[in-house]
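Newbie here. two chains, one complex. Structure please?
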Amino acid sequence: MKYFVTILLSMAVCTVQAQKAFITRNAKITFVAPKDDDVKATNNEVTSRLTDNGQLMFSLLIKSFRFEYAEMQEHFNNKYLESNKFPRADFKGLVLNIKDVNFTKNGKYKATVKGSLTMHGVTKELNTIGTIEVTNGKPTAVASFIIVLKDFNIDAASVTDKASITVTAQYQ
Amino acid sequence: MKKVWKIVVAVAIVSVIAGGSFAWYVFNKPHRDVSREKGLELTAQKIYDEFKANEEAANKKYLDKAIQLTGEVATVSTNQDGNVVADFKTNDSLFVINCTFKTNPGAIKPGDRITFKGICTGYIPDANVVINEGVLVK
């Protein structure tokens, strides 16, 4: 029995070691109000981690979103996202079809992502389909989706009720 | 009756001017320029230690503040919009202070000891503290 446990443990250790993680501290997320192009912002300081067994996480700071218009940026932080109270947003999920992605072969692969997004103190399930493009062993993940602001208790109805989001992560 | 019309017209003119100036203000208010602010002087290690020890307290102290950070550069890269990013070393090899320049700092390389001034946007556990919109002090 002891022997068996030892084998099992060493197998577990091997599995952990075999998992390869790709990270970036400067992934890019942009959003735009679908009905008003002036309401848009970019965050270039998103931390993300993708492992070759399909775990995917993003973590970003609300205050890192930069708007073209400073006044909008202030409203976004103080009135709508309350970034002093909720400074961070996090996504944790899985690439369900990670077996279809060959990290050692150049190519563009479709990725089905399922996970949960926590923002403004609310956690919601988020599913989307994106792509993972592998170039010389380095993956780039891209996805676009729309979120409904009231799902996250954000009341910006006077500006927009939805945000169209694009994520681009070039992993190292 | 004439008097009433005069008031109506006056109110209309005032509203148009007020609305117009508000719109003008919204679209023209300048962004913060950190190079004209005095920054809180810190080392990369110190800001990391404070966030790691107590994120809430460090948020209160540093979020939105101009920070003048001194430390050793671990890596230099460029973000997707072409801005230079320098990661400052801490004593935790997996944790850095992620600093993005708004103006090109010129030639900086890993191992350099530099001072950077920017605005702190917060802490991402197990990864980094983020400071952006920055300039090279020396």
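Moderator note: Chain A has a mean pLDDT of 92. The two ends of chain A are 42 Å apart (CA to CA). Thread marked as resolved.
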